[in-house]
Amino acid sequence: MTKTTAASTLTVDAIAAQTYTGSAIEPAVTVRDGETVLTQGTDYSVAYSDNTAGGTATVTITGLADAGATAATKYLGTKEVNFTIGKATPVITLAAASLTLQQSTTGSVAVSSVKIGELDVTDRVDITYSSDTPSVASVAADGTVTGVVVGNATITVTATPKSADAGNMNAVSAEYAVHVSYGVGTQNTVGDWGDGGTTNDTDMHF
């Protein structure tokens, strides 16, 4: 004789937290009736919802109590359990690791891509730039760097998710080094790369 049990009384092993990928996430589940591990497709079926975006996803366990189920115990009804989808941290790839400029000239290092795994999210983030030493190398909102005086600086490139993806990914930064050298017609009077003083009475280019 077949025994009937409410699916709501079943237990489901905790589902590990997942990370946003851009695709639907369907972690495997382990369902138990007491100490007995049940079989998906024989004892129950599984459906997932809200399982793509960051946040709380739901797994619905539905007991298989129809005539086609072959288990000795039939499970009636459903049971829901949740798991979390956390924010992913993208990777910024820059076109170069450094940039060399002469004083009063401009240049830039392009952002090649912003990716989560193989998923390109470059068009889903806002890119901003900052210089740790703007007195040596300043950077504009579009990423154009201007060499101000001889020396070294670091440009930080930050990718911040747009509002639609604020729950899916974290902001992330990458850096590249900038070296500003003498321009034609200028010379460092102290002879130190880190000194900003110049004179125009010697035509030198380093």
Oligomer: single chain
Report the structural category.
mainly beta
Largest sheet: 4 strands, mixed
Strand order of the largest sheet: 3-9-7-6
H/E topology pattern: EEEEEEEEEEEEEEEEEEE
Overall pLDDT, averaged? Answer: 89
| % residues in beta strands | over 45%
Number of helices: 0
What's the alpha carbon Rg, rounded to whole Å?
Answer: 29 Å
Record field, number of beta strands: 19
How far the N terminus sits from the C terminus, by CA atoms, comes to: 93 Å
- Uncertain segments: 188-206
Q: What spatial form do the alpha-carbon principal axes imply?
A: rod-shaped
Helix content: under 10%
Description:
The chain is an all-beta fold. The protein contains no helices and 19 strands. The chain has strands at about 5, 10, 20, 30-35, 35, 45-50, 55-65, 75, 80-85, 90-95, 100, 105, 110-115, 120, 125-130, 135-140, 145, 150-160, 170-180. Strands 3-9-7-6 form a four-stranded mixed β-sheet, with no helix packed on it. The chain is rod-shaped. The model is unreliable at about 190-205 (pLDDT under 50).
